[in-house]
Design brief:
Elements: E1 5-10, E2 13-17, H1 19-28, H2 34-44, E3 45-52, E4 57-59, H3 60-72, E5 78-82, E6 87-89, E7 92-101, E8 107-116, E9 122-129
Parallel strand pairs: 3-9
Antiparallel strand pairs: 1-2, 3-4, 5-7, 6-7, 7-8, 8-9
Helix pairs in contact: 2-3
C-alpha cells in the first residue's frame, strides 16, 4: 500500500504511515494507559479533530481523550479491534470494528469513516454503532 499519510514529527524523523497504519493506531488508543493516551491521540488526530459519536460530538484532543476514557473508567474496560479491511478513497477510509467488555465478554460492532488531514492525521471520524458496511463496488 502506498505511503500517502504522514504523521507528526518524532524527533528528527518524519514517521510515514499508510492509511491502514493510521487507522490501526487509532484503534490501538483504546487499551492504552490513561497517562499515555493523550500523547497517542496527538500522534493520530489533528488538534482540531472532530469525532462524531452516536450521542455527542467530541472536538479536539482533550474531548477525544475524555470520550475514550468514558469507556475505560468502569471496572470493565472496553477493548476494540478492527474486523475488516480498510477501504481508502480520496483521503477517506472506512472499516468495521468490534468492541468487547472485558469482564462480561459482551461485544458490539460498528463501523467508522475517517478523513485524513493534509499531514496525514485523522481530522474527522464518524462512528456508527451496529452498522455493517456493504462492499465498495
Amino acid at each position: 500500500m502506498e505511503r500517502i499519510v504522514s504523521c507528526r514529527k518524532d524527533g528528527e524523523m518524519d514517521i510515514l504511515l499508510t492509511p491502514q497504519e493510521a487507522v490501526d493506531r487509532e484503534v490501538g488508543l483504546w487499551p492504552a494507559a490513561e497517562h499515555e493516551r493523550l500523547e497517542l491521540i496527538r500522534q493520530v488526530y489533528t488538534e482540531d479533530a472532530i469525532v462524531y459519536g452516536s450521542k455527542a460530538i467530541f472536538r479536539g484532543w482533550n474531548q477525544i481523550a475524555e470520550w475514550i476514557h468514558g469507556y475505560q473508567e468502569s471496572d470493565s474496560p472496553v477493548r476494540v479491534a478492527r474486523i475488516s479491511e480498510i477501504e481508502v478513497t480520496s483521503g477517506w477510509a472506512r472499516f468495521e470494528w468490534r468492541a468487547w467488555v472485558d469482564s462480561s465478554g459482551d461485544s458490539f460492532e460498528g463501523a467508522e469513516v475517517v478523513h485524513f488531514a493534509p499531514d496525514g492525521r485523522i481530522d474527522q471520524l464518524v462512528v456508527f454503532y451496529g452498522l455493517r458496511l456493504p462492499p465498495l463496488g
